[in-house]
Amino acid sequence: MCSHGSIGRRCLLPHIMCGIVGYIGYRNASDVLLDGMHRLEYRGYDSAGIAIRDKDSIGIQKEVGKVSDLEKLVSSMKPGGHQGIGHTRWATHGEVTSLNAHPHTDLRKNVTLVHNGIVENFMELKAELEYSGVSFTTETDTEVIAQLLAQIHHGDAVSSLVELSSRLKGSYAMAILIRDEADRIYCIRKGSPLVLGIGEGESFCASDVPALLPYTKDFIYLDDGDIAELSAAGIKTWNSQGEKISKDVCRVDWDVSMVDKCGYPHFMLKEINEQSRVLRDTLCHRVNSSGIDLSAELTISSAEVAALKKVHIIACGTSYYASLVAERFMENITDLDIRVDIASEYRYRSIVTGKDTLAVFVSQSGETADTLAAERLVKKTGATCIAVTNNPNSTLAREVDHVLQLMAGPEIGVAATKTFSGQLAVLYLLGLFLGKQRGTLSTSQEEKFLSEFANLPYKIDTILMKHEEIRILAEKFADSRNFLFLGRGLSFPIAMEGALKLKEISYIHAEAYAAGEMKHGPIALLDSEVPVVVINPRDELYEKTLSNIQEARARRAPIISVITEGDVVSQKNAQASVSVPATENDLTPFLTVIPLQLFAYYVARHRGCDIDQPRNLAKSVTVE
Ligand code: M6R
């Protein structure tokens, strides 16, 4: 696989991952937009804005901060229109200012638009426009699009959008108000996600389905280059050449309660508590009386499975840690050469893939830019591509050969929890499927795993019941400035996931190491101020990790251990320990991760952090 140029490397200002919403119909547009934007805040929450069309005028309101800050501003103005667009922004470059917040317009306000993505050639386009006399009020790439479209547009909106997209390089999803197209909103997408919602006498668009769940369950998923016109009467669509097309309408089975907190103080806590349900749902779709059955999703013949030599698993963040756990499991039960890579590294390396490769792309959102880029490169080499995703209509899902869907339901908290368990479960089932097909997994082994799998939801529930014990423990250590997380084997990626959870929601520095590596460097960090969280279930590496605990204790580091119930030795060797029920060695990660999620949650809560929307993060990382 060869290296490719970096998307956005030339882009100085601003890289944006955002949420966009559009509405036209009979309701108060600002109410629908703000409601949808709240549900999209996981995509970005630096600043927000809306544009409402009321008769001939288009009023724009923008505010730095969260959607609730914008809401305060809007409520004092009470805009009355029934048509509008909204945006919640996440910027990695460029200042977070009201000026840079969306919507953006051209100088005459003929075009008003919101945008998610990056226009790579915006500098060139801006220079051209400036040369022709256009002046700019912001430094955003989005204003360049608005000014360019205003210059192009004479007459037919669809032809103007076809021409606009021929001039833009990069990725975008946009909702656009054009002054002389009074009863319509236009949408266009390439690279960035956009869904259209169908209602009775109303139409919607949004970056993601949850934004619109209170209003509709009928969605159209736009493909790259597609253009749409939304009106109260319905939706029309065109392809990138401007040819009229009809698109399938998909009915989603997600319920609006799935995107509510249902009495929990935070989505993260609700989602942690859903993990036993996620496991049950994952299994009930894929296990029957004859064992593992993925035939409804994986139409790979036995001959194709037999011809495989390697499995490459590619992902980012928490999805990467779930993949690392699965790698260790899969190598225990198959004869395949398994490797796991971070997507942003993999895509720039020269890794050989081909027809003998099963490439598994793991992404909760299915929209992560690096994971998508890696998939596009690998697919060209003839590898069989599988998506493991929570979003079966995502860009990733639509591009791969096969989709294994997580049965997690929408995850709103920025910190991934239930989707981690869902990913683990699906990847384990994939491993069992491969082992069975290749004859490296015996029927008795398969039965053993599947029967213990069925017990895991109950075991998870018993750990969740220890939330009070974990809260007290978390509060005791919440003022620590640094943590070290240690584990071996399957517990090493769990240590990484535990450290990631803690740092992303509590902002405490946490580092994870393979327990055996500690003495090769990080041990120098240890003293009585650095708690060491050790994941040490009773497995074949238990004794080894116990020795590492002694090494840390000798440096006076407080030990917090996650252990198997009844392990008195580990209890004696720790300041505090949380026990999980015994299970098969290979299945311990499903249990040991739960106390770590709760620990991070309660530390962050004690510190007063914004748990569901931690600073500087966005749920879907749709730019490189
Ligand atoms: O949607 P994806 O699974 O591709 O997202 C990957 C990461 O961005 C994500 O797991 C991130 O690390 C989470 N904030 C972790 O809690």
What's a concise summary of this model?
With 624 residues, this protein is α/β, with parallel strands linked by helices. It is built from 19 helices and 27 strands.
Structural class: alpha/beta
Separation, N- and C-terminal Cα atoms: 19 Å
Major sheet description: 8 strands, antiparallel
Strand order of the largest sheet: 3-2-4-1-10-9-11-15
Helix content range: 25-40%
Overall structural domain count: 3
Number of strands: 27
Bound small molecules, by name, code or SMILES, are: 5-amino-5-deoxy-1-O-phosphono-D-mannitol
Q: What can you see in these coordinates?
A:
This protein is of the alpha/beta class. The protein has three domains: 241 residues, Aminohydrolase, N-terminal nucleophile (Ntn) domain (Glutamine Phosphoribosylpyrophosphate, subunit 1, domain 1); 198 residues, Glucose-6-phosphate isomerase like protein, domain 1 (Rossmann fold), CATH 3.40.50.10490; 140 residues, Rossmann fold, CATH 3.40.50. It contains 19 helices and 27 strands. The chain has an eight-stranded antiparallel beta sheet with strand order 3-2-4-1-10-9-11-15, covered by helices on one side. Helix 15 crosses helix 19. It is globular, with a radius of gyration of 25 Å. The two termini are 19 Å apart. The site of 5-amino-5-deoxy-1-O-phosphono-D-mannitol has 16 residues, from helix 9. 5-amino-5-deoxy-1-O-phosphono-D-mannitol (M6R) binds next to helix 9.
